[in-house]
Amino acid sequence: MDHPTSPSVLESLRDELRNFAKDRDWGQFHSPKNLAIAMSVEAAEVLEHFQWLTNEQSAHLTAETHEKVRLELADVLLYLIRLADCLNVDLAAAARDKLSINAQKYPLDRARGTARKYTDL
């Protein structure tokens, strides 16, 4: 766990991304719309590696495919962090809030062991 006065991993990555974009004068291209599109494109690139695999195959990727997926996941994360920064969203707080909301929508006594949507529990 992070020390209360030290920056979180997300904050550190956010700051590195700010500097990375600033050094390259990319702020002009990093509108929320463009970042959301870029994040979606990268998520699709993650999917591409799983497109024709069985469930079993997807759980046991080759080392080469695993590395490709790892780097695509990093792209998704980096765009997500950059988008959140541009929109002034605290991702960690938003994630905690969403977990709390989901706990209400999916109570253990009704949601355990089922993939049904909360409206169908």
Task: Summarize this structure briefly.
The protein has 121 residues and is mainly alpha-helical. The chain has six helices and no strands.
Describe this structure in words.
This protein has 121 residues and is an all-alpha fold. The chain has six helices and no strands. Helix 1 packs across helix 4 (63-86) and helix 2 packs antiparallel against helix 4. The relative contact order is 0.10.
CA-based shape: globular
Q: What is the straight-line distance between the termini?
A: 35 Å
Mean pLDDT: 94
- Structural class, from secondary structure content? mainly alpha
Question: Helix content range of the residues, please?
Answer: 55-70%
What about the largest sheet?
A: none
Order of helices and strands: HHHHHH
Radius of gyration, CA atoms, in whole angstroms? 18 Å
Portion in strands: under 5%
Total of DSSP H or I helical runs spanning 4+ residues: 6
Number of DSSP strands?
0
Task: Report low-confidence residues grouped into runs of 5 or more.
Answer: none
